[in-house]
Amino acid sequence: MHTDLVAALDIGGTKIAGALVDRQGRILDRAQRPTPAQEDGDTVMGAVDAVLGALSASPLWQRVGAVGIGSAGPVDASAGTVSPVNVPGWRDYPLVARVRAATGGLPVELIGDGVAITAAEHWQGAARGHDNALCMVVSTGVGGGLVLGGRLHPGPTGNAGHIGHISVDLDGDRCPCGTRGCVERIASGPNIARRALDNGWRPGPDGDTSAAAVAAAARAGDPVAVASFERAARALAAGIAATATLVEIDIAVIGGGVGKAGEVLFAPLRRALTEYATLSFVRRLAVAPAQMGTDAGLVGAAAAALARSEDPAVAGV
Amino acid sequence: MHTDLVAALDIGGTKIAGALVDRQGRILDRAQRPTPAQEDGDTVMGAVDAVLGALSASPLWQRVGAVGIGSAGPVDASAGTVSPVNVPGWRDYPLVARVRAATGGLPVELIGDGVAITAAEHWQGAARGHDNALCMVVSTGVGGGLVLGGRLHPGPTGNAGHIGHISVDLDGDRCPCGTRGCVERIASGPNIARRALDNGWRPGPDGDTSAAAVAAAARAGDPVAVASFERAARALAAGIAATATLVEIDIAVIGGGVGKAGEVLFAPLRRALTEYATLSFVRRLAVAPAQMGTDAGLVGAAAAALARSEDPAVAGV
Question: What's the family (chains A, B) (predicted)?
Answer without folding.
Answer: Belongs to the ROK (NagC/XylR) family.
